[in-house]
Write a structure and sequence with these properties.
mainly alpha
Amino acid sequence: MAKRSDALLEKIRLGNPMTNMEKLNLIIGLSVPSMLAQITNVLMFFIDASMVGHLGAAASASIGLVESTIWLMGSVMGAMSMGFSVQVAHFIGANDFSRARQVFRHALIFGGIFSLFMCVIGISVHNPLPFWLGGGADIAADSSRYFFIYSLTLPFVLLFHLTSSMLKSSGNMRTPSLLSIMMCALDVAFNYIFIYILNMGVMGAALGTMAAYITTSLPMAWMATCKSKILALRLDNEKFKWMWDYVRNALKISLPIAVQSVLMSGAQVVSTLIVAPLGNIAIASNSFAITAESLCYMPGYGIGDAATTLVGQTHGANRLDLCKSFAYMTVGIGMLVMALMGIIMYIFAPEMIGVLSPVEAIRTLGTKVLRIEAFAEPFFAASIVAYSVCVGAGDTLKPAVMNFLSMWCVRLTMAAALAPHYGLTGVWIAMAVELTFRGTIFLIRLFRGKWLLTMQ
């Protein structure tokens, strides 16, 4: 499959025509490995939550309390990586591999400095953070330790995301997928050792995740910098020269994504503040339901990765019709796949929550809210993949505004109004309504073709 995908990607760069079956084969060839990578990445949180869940509701709530903040920091790392990897995809599509490698070098230097800065911020706020988020003294210590260890891991999180996104931009989805699966397996092993054998509880879950990131980010970096046929830095013959244009272009792409990530994850933090007064059972149920649902929407992000790569390379090759065709096909496939995942989530919601916690009250409430969300999955897919299409074309500002307005003006407003009367159920009704609205406005933007203006 990898060789076939490479041959089809070369057709894009050479300007050769492609049949619909070839397009479909390329989308599947790029999406499937990326889906596996996305799913296994989420499985790390699933495994952490499951193992800690068996330690009791308080331990589960201690991770759930800071989970949205952790996702915020991780999403900022991903946004920074995307600003450089989109440029790499454009240069590869234009058959300019030398400039693609130059951008990669800039990304490694700038990303390393940025990740250390984020690490310092995380360490600085780890003590007061649980109290800022509305957590009680009974879970604050564990929450603080978990976040502190994650903050120390951020340079390796950045290295993993950056080199993974670079490989994906070059069309290599297989390596990031295999290493993500390896990271998941290592996370299970390390968690078992730290949580159960060494009896380290919540802190053991954080150390397990840290060890898994370290042992997989280094080989990922080696594959990108040394073994890639397109990106290996040894292939450069000319002397490295710092070019601020690459950084400025990266910031132009990344800043809207990063600001959106901060505001969207900030919205998740606000959502946590809305849920926190509902008690530890609601906090744990909310966290477990989010983790369980993420297993269902990760295929959408996998297809989104493929969409970004394909739109990015057709953008670089200046093939407008092919770009539009890939955009429509990836969004359609994403909606179909996530509709099926929504059905599965509705049917098996009790089992999905049951794996995470043996507490009956958590299982009952978690199942109820998860089934509410199942109906919104196709439109969630539309927002995920259509946004990825926009990113691939370098169109990030207006889609970021769309995401922001949808989350803050629709979801949080409804959640704040419904939570006092309907509890966690009201919060998740607001979430389902907002995702349906967001998917609709992204479909409108997709078919109006505004995102294509960046190609002209």
